[in-house]
């Protein structure tokens, strides 16, 4: 009796060219990430106006609100990551957009810091939940030979979107008030939920691994390969992955990942601590020191984000070739760049260049870290694995602004504040070096696009 015909989804994806389907998914995901990035930074850009409007003088009160925003992101990443692995990437993405859209819109009517803190905590859960599912979805449609590049290019939507509140603050807020920042940040993601529902497909690997919706799987196979012959007895599978039962976080430490996962988490936490210290406190610090006006501080926030876009794009090719090495180098370069910001208050041009390159290093390497998190975990718990990496990273992200409040209350000079902001990048350089060494010793070589390490480990058993 002849064996049933088989279609291996992983091989189908890896061997197909980058075509209209691929570009459409990347562009749609990038647009979704634009407004995720917008809502991540909107509170930081609005804070100087909120501080003046509500006559808030206590730095710790401001730091608490900024940290509440990031605490919500910390909670949302594993929560919606679990939802993405259980219910599907697409459903989790829609729910994430609706969550942070509704609560960001509600911030228009906030009248105090405590109210804003509660609303941003709730909005943050949706903000944090979007990224692991978008990363997982794109990793599962990207050919291995271009997976890192595709994930990094898509991630540029986050810093691009993060620059938009600064542009709005510079051009529109003086005439229309700070509320406009939250009108845009609330209505846009609600519209994005509709875009996701209508345009973005569910992950075919998720559907196959979970054994769901055979008709949809067949439709997606034909979209990927119009010439694929599919009959009622055709087996559709993901051959190169080990299958796991349940969604327990313990899977993140198996198959050679016992040290790699914690080191990856540490890199996330340290880099996001440095970034969110800069993103949350830099506008306020430079305005209070009378180095920049509130409008110019919004431009500085834009430069930080644009630097991240350039850094992410430049990282693509070196990362395809050398894996974690360029990320380690960018960690090291971030230390002197961040530290220099506090010493350049006498020159707006020099200060602007330093801020741009701080974004280049910190946000640029964050794109690389996100790509790694989206690549090394298998389909069965890719959203959950990425969500946990982002969640642990958020510990650093909400500690950064909170520690910044204490440092500011201690009345440290501006140069000392930015030297302190460089410390996480110095420690992160060591952590990333150790991660690179462990990765090479466990899985060999430089590149990370020749197969997921968990898949490789499973295949050798």
Describe this structure in words.
- By secondary structure, this protein is an all-alpha fold.
- It has one domain: Growth Hormone, Chain: A (Up-down Bundle).
- Helix content is 76%, strand content 1%.
- It has 19 helices and 2 strands.
- The chain has helices at 9-15, 20-53, 59-87, 89-106, 113-141, 147-155, 157-171, 173-176, 179-199, 204-210, 214-224, 260-288, 294-322, 325-340, 348-376, 382-409, 414-421, 423-443, 453-459; strands at 6-8, 235-237.
- The chain has a two-stranded parallel ribbon with strand order 1-2.
- α2 (20-53) runs parallel beside α6, α2 (20-53) runs parallel beside α7 (157-171) and α3 (59-87) runs antiparallel to α16.
- The longest helix has 34 residues, at 20-53.
- The model is unreliable at 449-461 (pLDDT under 50).
Q: Which characteristics define this entry?
A:
1% strand; mainly alpha; two-stranded parallel ribbon; Growth Hormone, Chain: A; 2 strands; 461 residues; disordered C terminus
């Amino acid at each position: 009796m002849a064996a049933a015909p088989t279609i291996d989804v992983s091989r189908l994806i890896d061997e197909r060219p980058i075509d209209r389907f691929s570009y459409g998914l990347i562009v749609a995901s990038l647009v979704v990430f634009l407004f995720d990035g917008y809502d991540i930074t909107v509170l930081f850009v609005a804070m100087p106006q909120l501080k003046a409007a509500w006559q808030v003088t206590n730095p710790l009160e401001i730091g608490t609100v900024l940290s509440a925003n990031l605490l919500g992101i910390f909670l949302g990443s594993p929560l919606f990551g679990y939802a993405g692995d259980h219910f599907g990437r697409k459903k989790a993405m829609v729910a994430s957009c609706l969550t942070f859209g509704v609560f960001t819109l509600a911030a228009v009517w906030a009248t105090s810091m405590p109210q804003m803190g509660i609303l941003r905590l709730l909005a943050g859960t949706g903000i944090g939940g979007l990224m692991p599912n978008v990363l997982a979805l794109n990793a599962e449609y990207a050919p291995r030979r271009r997976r890192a590049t595709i994930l990094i290019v898509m991630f540029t939507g986050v810093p691009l979107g993060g620059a938009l509140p600064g542009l709005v603050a510079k051009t529109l807020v003086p005439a229309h008030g700070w509320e406009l920042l939250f009108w845009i940040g609330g209505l846009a993601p609600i519209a994005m939920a509709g875009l996701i529902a209508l345009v973005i497909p569910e992950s075919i690997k998720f559907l196959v691994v979970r054994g769901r919706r055979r008709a949809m799987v067949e439709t997606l196979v034909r979209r990927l390969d119009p010439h694929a012959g599919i009959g009622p007895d055709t087996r559709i599978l993901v051959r190169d992955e080990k299958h796991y039962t349940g969604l327990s976080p313990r899977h993140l430490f198996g198959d050679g990942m016992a040290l790699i996962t914690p080191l990856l988490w540490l890199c996330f936490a340290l880099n996001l601590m440095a970034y969110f210290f800069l993103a949350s406190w830099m506008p306020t610090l430079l305005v209070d020191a009378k180095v920049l006006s509130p409008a110019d501080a919004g431009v500085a926030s834009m430069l930080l984000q644009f630097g991240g876009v350039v850094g992410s794009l430049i990282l693509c090719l070196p990362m395809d070739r050398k894996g974690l090495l360029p990320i380690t180098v960018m960690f090291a370069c971030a230390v002197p760049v961040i530290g220099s910001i506090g010493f350049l208050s006498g020159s707006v041009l020099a200060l602007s260049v330093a801020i741009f390159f701080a974004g280049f290093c910190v946000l640029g390497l964050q794109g690389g870290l996100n790509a790694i998190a989206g690549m090394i975990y298998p389909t069965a718990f890719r959203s959950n694995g990425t969500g946990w990496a982002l969640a642990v990273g958020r510990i650093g992200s909400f500690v950064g602004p909170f520690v910044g409040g204490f440092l500011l209350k201690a009345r440290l000079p501006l140069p000392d504040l930015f030297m302190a902001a460089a410390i996480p990048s110095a420690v992160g350089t060591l952590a990333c070096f150790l991660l690179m060494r462990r990765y090479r010793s466990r899985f060999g070589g430089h590149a990370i696009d020749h197969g997921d390490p968990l898949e490789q480990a499973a295949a050798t058993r």
